[in-house]
C-alpha cells in the first residue's frame, strides 16, 4: 500500500487484504476474530482517515441496537493488542495497521487538510529514538510518532 494512495487506488482491495490478514493472524495466534471485531476493523479500514470510537459506535448502531461504548472500547483494545489498529493519541482516533504481522512502533503522517493518515514502519527512526532516549537514561515503554503536515493530494501534486 502506498503511503498516500492516488485516485486510481482500489480501496476495497485494502479492506479485503486487512480483513484477510487479520483472519489469518487470529487463526495462527489462537485468537477469535468475532463478527463484531471484524466489523469494527472493517469500519476502520473504510478510509485512510482516522476514526473516533464514538463514530464507530454510531456506525455500528445503524446495523445493531446492541452496541454500547464499553463494547466498542473492548473491541478496540483487542484490535490494538493484536496489532490490527493503532491509536493516534493526538486526535484520539484509530487507524488500521499496515504491518500487523510483527510488533512495531508506528510513525504516522497526518494530513492537516484531508485527515488521511500514512503509517511508516521505519526501524531506523524507531532505533534512533530508542537510542537517544536510552542515552538520556530514559526507560522507554512505548513509542509513537505523529507528524502533522500536508499530503501530496492536498498540495496539488
The outline comes out as globular
Structural class: alpha+beta
Strand content: 5-15%
Number of helices: 6
Low-confidence stretches: none
Oligomer: single chain
Strand order of the largest sheet: 4-3-5
Write down how many β-strands occur, each being a DSSP E stretch of 2 or more residues.
5
User: Helix fraction?
Assistant: 40-55%
SSE order, as H and E? Answer: HHHHEEEEHEH
Gyration radius, rounded: 16 Å
- Span from first to last CA? 18 Å
Please tell me the overall pLDDT. Answer: 89
What characterizes the major β-sheet? 3 strands, mixed
Structure in words:
The chain is built from six helices and five strands; from the N terminus they run H-H-H-H-E-E-E-E-H-E-H. The protein has helices at residues 11-29, 35-45, 53-63, 69-81, 123-135, 152-155; strands at residues 85-88, 93-96, 107-111, 117-120, 145-149. With 157 residues, the protein is α+β, with helices and mostly antiparallel strands. The model has no long low-confidence stretch (mean pLDDT 89). The strands form two sheets. A three-stranded mixed β-sheet has the order 4-3-5, with no helix packed on it. A two-stranded antiparallel sheet has the order 1-2. Helix 1 (11-29) runs antiparallel to helix 2, helix 2 (35-45) crosses helix 4 and helix 3 (53-63) packs across helix 4 (69-81).
Amino acid at each position: 500500500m502506498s503511503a498516500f494512495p492516488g485516485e486510481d487506488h482500489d480501496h476495497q482491495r485494502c479492506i479485503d487484504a486487512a480483513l484477510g490478514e487479520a483472519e489469518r493472524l487470529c487463526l495462527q495466534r489462537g485468537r477469535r476474530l468475532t463478527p463484531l471485531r471484524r466489523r469494527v476493523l472493517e469500519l476502520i479500514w473504510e478510509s485512510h482517515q482516522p476514526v473516533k470510537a464514538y463514530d464507530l459506535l454510531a456506525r455500528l448502531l445503524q446495523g445493531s441496537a446492541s452496541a454500547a461504548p464499553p463494547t466498542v472500547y473492548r473491541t478496540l483494545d483487542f484490535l490494538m493488542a493484536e496489532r490490527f489498529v493503532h491509536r493516534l493519541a493526538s486526535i484520539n482516533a484509530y487507524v488500521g495497521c499496515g504491518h500487523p504481522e510483527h510488533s512495531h512502533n508506528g510513525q504516522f503522517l497526518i494530513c492537516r487538510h484531508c485527515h488521511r493518515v500514512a503509517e511508516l514502519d521505519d526501524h531506523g527512526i524507531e532505533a534512533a529514538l530508542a537510542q537517544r532516549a536510552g542515552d538520556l537514561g530514559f526507560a522507554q515503554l512505548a513509542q509513537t510518532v505523529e507528524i502533522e503536515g500536508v499530503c501530496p493530494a492536498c498540495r496539488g501534486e
